[in-house]
Design brief:
By secondary structure, the chain is of the alpha+beta class. It has five helices and 13 strands. The protein has two domains: 73 residues, Aminotransferase class 4, branched-chain amino acid transferase, N-terminal domain (D-amino Acid Aminotransferase, Chain A, domain 1, 2-Layer Sandwich), CATH 3.30.470; 152 residues, D-amino Acid Aminotransferase, Chain A, domain 2. The longest helix has 17 residues. One of its GO terms (biological process) is amino acid biosynthetic process.
C-alpha cells in the first residue's frame, strides 16, 4: 500500500517510519517506545498496547511481497494505520549527496508529529533543486536537523551532532550509543560547513548517507570521508544483527 507524502501532513497525530530487511523489521522496538512516549506527552490516545502494535506490524510486513520495505505507523486520535511499500533504495546516495540549507524549524522537534508541513516544504524545495535533502537552519544560521534526517559532522576524528531541539532519531541514537569513534555534542554554523572534515545525515530508511556538498560549499575532499564510510559499513552490519 502506498500513500502520498502529504496525505497526513495536516492531520493531528504521530508517525514512525522504519525499514525491513528480509521481511523482518529493523529496530522496531525503539520506534514503538518513542511512539508510546510521544503519545503520552501530547495526550494522544492509542487504542492498542505496544505488544498489539508489534504483532500487527508483523502481519503487515509478512503479507507484503517485497522483503525490504519502508513501513509507516500512523497514530491519530483513537485510530492506528500501518502501511508499507517497497524500500527501493537508490544506492548512488552512498557515494555522496548534495543538500541545501533552509531557514526553518519544527514546532516540536523532539516529537515526530504528522504536522510536518515545514519539513515537507523544505524537502520539496531541495527536490526541485535536484538535491537529496534540506538542512534546516535557525535564525542565527545554526544547523538544526534535516527535513527527514539528523545531521552529523566529523572534525579531527570526533563525531559530532547537535544535542537539543532535534528529533531523537533511532538511527541517530544507534550511532551515538555504538560508534567506535568518540562522540561529542556541539553546534555547527552554516558558515562553518567548509571547516568540517566530513558531513553525513541519518534516517531509518536509508541509514548513513554521506553529504559532499551543501549549497555551493564542498564538504571535506568532496567525497565520503573515512569515518562516514566506516560508520555506513557498521550500520549495515548492525541492522543485519538486529534482524
Amino acid at each position: 500500500m502506498q500513500l502520498g507524502a502529504d496525505t497526513f501532513a495536516y492531520k493531528p497525530g504521530l508517525y514512525e517510519t522504519f525499514r525491513t530487511l528480509n521481511h523482518k523489521s529493523v529496530f522496531l522496538e525503539p520506534h514503538l517506545d518513542r511512539l508510546i512516549q510521544s503519545a503520552d506527552r501530547i495526550g494522544l490516545t492509542i487504542p492498542f498496547t505496544q505488544t498489539e502494535i508489534f504483532e500487527m506490524v508483523k502481519i503487515v510486513i509478512s503479507d507484503f511481497p517485497d522483503p525490504d520495505q519502508r513501513t509507516r505507523i500512523l497514530a491519530m486520535p483513537n485510530n492506528l494505520i500501518i502501511y508499507t511499500s517497497a524500500l527501493e533504495l537508490d544506492n548512488s546516495i552512498y557515494s555522496g549527496i548534495a543538500a541545501i540549507t533552509v531557514h526553518a524549524n519544527r514546532e516540536t522537534p523532539d516529537v515526530k508529529t504528522t504536522n510536518y508541513k515545514v519539513c515537507l516544504k523544505a524537502w520539496r524545495k531541495a527536490n526541485d533543486m535536484g538535491c537529496f535533502e534540506s538542512i534546516l537552519i535557525d535564525g542565527n544560521g545554526v544547523v538544526l536537523e534535516g527535513s527527514r534526517s539528523n545531521v552529523f559532522w566529523v572534525k579531527d576524528g570526533i563525531l559530532m551532532t547537535r544535542q537539543k531541539n532535534v528529533l531523537p532519531g533511532i538511527t541517530r541514537q544507534t550511532l551515538i550509543s555504538r560508534s567506535p569513534f568518540p562522540v561529542s555534542f556541539g553546534l555547527l554554523n552554516q558558515s562553518n560547513f567548509t571547516d568540517v572534515d566530513e558531513l553525513f545525515i541519518t534516517n531509518s530508511g536509508s541509514g548513513v548517507i554521506p553529504v559532499i556538498k551543501v549549497d555551493s560549499m564542498e564538504i571535506g575532499t568532496g567525497e565520503p570521508g573515512p569515518i562516514t564510510k566506516q560508520l555506513l559499513l557498521l550500520y549495515n552490519q548492525w541492522i543485519h544483527d538486529d534482524c
